Amino acid sequence: MKPINEEHLAVLRRHMVEVIAIHADLASEELGKATLDERVMAAMLRVPRHRFVPAPFAHYAYEDMPLPIGFDKTVSQPFIVALMADLLAPQPHEAVLEIGTGLGYQTAILAELASQVWSVEIIEEFASHAEALLEGLGFSNVGIRVGDGSRGWPEHAPFDKILVTVAAEPTPPALLEQLKQGGRMVLPVGSEKVQLLTIIDKDAAGQLKTRKLIPVRFSRLETV
Question: Is residue 102 within 8 Å of residue 82, measured between CB atoms?
Answer without folding.
Answer: no
